[in-house]
Amino acid sequence: MKNTQAERDALERMRPGHITAQGFLGDDHRSLPDIVEADSELFAQLGMDFDQVCDQLEHLRDAGQKGLGDPITIDGRWLVTTGDARGMLPCPWNDGLFHKNSILVQDQQSGRQLIFSDLSVHLLRAHHFCQGKGHAFRMEPELLKAVLY
Amino acid sequence: MNSFLTGPLVTAGLAAFLALIISVLDRIVNNYGEVTMDINAGKRNYKVRGGSPLLGTLAAEGIFVPSACGGRGSCGACKVKVLSDVGPHLPTETPYLTPDELKQNVRLSCQIKLKKDIEIELPEELFSVKKFKSKVASIKNVTHDIKEVLFKLENPDSIEFLAGQYVQIVVPPYGNFKESVQRAYSMSSRPGDNGQVELLVRLVPGGIATTWVHQFLKEGDSVELVGPFGDFHVRETPATMVCVAGGSGMAPFKSMLYHMHEEGAHPDKDIWYFFGARSGRDMFYLDELRALEKKMPRFHFVAALSEPSPEDNWTGDTGLITDVLERYIKEKIDASKGLEGYLCGSPGMINACTTVMTRNNIALEKIYYDKFA
Hints:
The complex is a heterodimer.
Chain A: H1 5-13, H2 32-45, H3 50-64, E1 72-74, E2 78-90, E3 97-107, E4 113-116, H4 118-127, H5 141-148
Antiparallel strand pairs in A: 1-2, 2-3, 3-4
Chain B: H1 3-29, E1 34-39, E2 44-49, H2 54-60, E3 79-82, H3 99-103, E4 106-108, E5 118-121, E6 130-141, E7 146-155, E8 166-171, E9 181-186, E10 196-202, H4 208-215, E11 222-229, E12 240-246, H5 250-263, E13 271-277, H6 286-295, E14 299-305, E15 317-318, H7 321-331, E16 339-345, H8 347-359, E17 367-371
Helix pairs in contact in B: 7-8
């Protein structure tokens, strides 16, 4: 699928060294629309809704912040650790600026864990973009299903 | 010559020729000659070669504006107020600037190039910021995910700072990361120990700098530090300090407390320090701070675990540190000299503690913090 100009600009800003040192694409060589379309299909197959997933991620982040950086058990199931760095990160689509943070969610039920940031949640909610395969902050749909549901 | 070599050689020759032309054109087109940097209305003047970003040009003159991303325009830290015309704001700058900053022509110094004479305003304290060459003297694990790293300063060999300020570590390219970045950490060492800088670095999953410190940095390594920065420090009032931290937010308070004890600084101030951790494995410096409490009667240390494990045999306070803080403010802390809040941590932690403090009559303007934002 071809990229629009906005997608080409966003894609350029997703490369390593533009917004973050590691970029947003990992080792994924698919086009941006292809990544978004494939992940959207996976979301649908898994019965997940982007907004609901984002609401749950934000709930875990907000509750996790009460641990002041230490792990804290949320709803008797998730061990959440929030980490913060100085500085902000813009969305590659230039539609927002986000605090530089990372939230580690360890699901004690499935034994699996995921890492995300405020920017990850925005990318998911606003752009349905899970980030490229192989990237540390990729929100793998199957992992989201296992950890959050 | 073999004919199969002709193609690659011609291609290589053409590429070299084009590179030469680009290089020559770049020297001609981007040659802005000598330009003047006027800082703070004539207080400092520099004649510099034009064409480079303001951030790097200032650094070359020994003026270090805070920057975490190494000049890639991704941290928004290197803001400078520009008084002369340097053209309109760039799309790479605007996401980081508030409407008020846009109106005042605040710019990201890494994004604007010096093409002609420029007038700028800088906070005076930036002129005492230096770049230090140091060697890692020791690395200790204080918890399972926090390291205490001691840097011995070599050139310059001492640093002047206020307890509570921070430095930036220059993280060199490593592993898959091809570019240098800088990250800020509060100093946990005392200002009196000015030949060294101690930092507490917590491992952040996916963090470029913390991964480097935890997995790559070794004792004896050379590291560059830039600082001091920040205006988080003990205020000269008799009001009682109410300090709150968790994890590596311990750093500025360690510096302040030992400075106050060893130098007898701020003798009128009582200090309450609330430190929260999840369980025993996340708690550190407990014995040191209990010992300090005995030596300094005006210092009260309240450590609390939110989820103590049975093997912790914890007899201290339990619960979220914000709840413990509220209980102590209501029941135990004498507010007759007034209260000041001191916080170090994430925006979420700062907001949670600020809510508790203001609800308990600590004025918002008396709450000081080192917000990681």
